[in-house]
Amino acid sequence: MSTTYKIDPAHSSAHFVVRHMMITNVRGAFSNVQGAIVWDAADPSQTTVEATIDAATIQTQDAARDGHLKSADFLDVEKYPTITFKSTSVVPAGDGELKVTGDLTIRGVTEPVVLKVEGPTAETKDPWGNVRVGASATTKIKRSNFGLTWNAVLEGGGIALGDDLKIELEVSLIKS
After folding, report:
1. What is the H or E stretch that residue 43 is in?
2. Quick check: helix, strand or coil at residue 75?
3. Rounded to 10 degrees, what is the CA torsion of 127, 128, 132, 136?
4. Chain Cα centroid distance, residue 127
5. Which domains are seen in the chain, by residue range?
6. Distance CA 26, CA 161 (A)
């Protein structure tokens, strides 16, 4: 028997990490993560995951950089306002872990990705009577595969931005 959980945007987030100027990692985040998971504990292969992120909510602690990331050089949020994920396969991957394969769409480009998921946690009741579970997920993508190709050559050699983009997700889910 499956159970539907809705992503709680107030307690969920999507973070990313990219190498900047070949010397350090820069972190950013998106808020307003929404979607649903239909969880089948008896047969996880029947589980489905769908999520949508508001691309305009990108935050990197630098307003000028955030504006550039929202522009046509990167996410082009006016033309592509959302980032979406839809699972195609869910398989157990060890104790309390899942491998969730699905289609990630960024900037109108869809590519398969594999999420390493910890969870879901056991159900717990929050102070308002909602039944909740949580999960964490990670993956790594090549940003260039999604048309995120802007870069700059550094004076001393090398490039401003790495192509590898680490993605970290934290979701709090409310039982429907």
Report:
1. none
2. coil
3. -70
4. 27
5. 3-175 (2.40.128.110)
6. 10
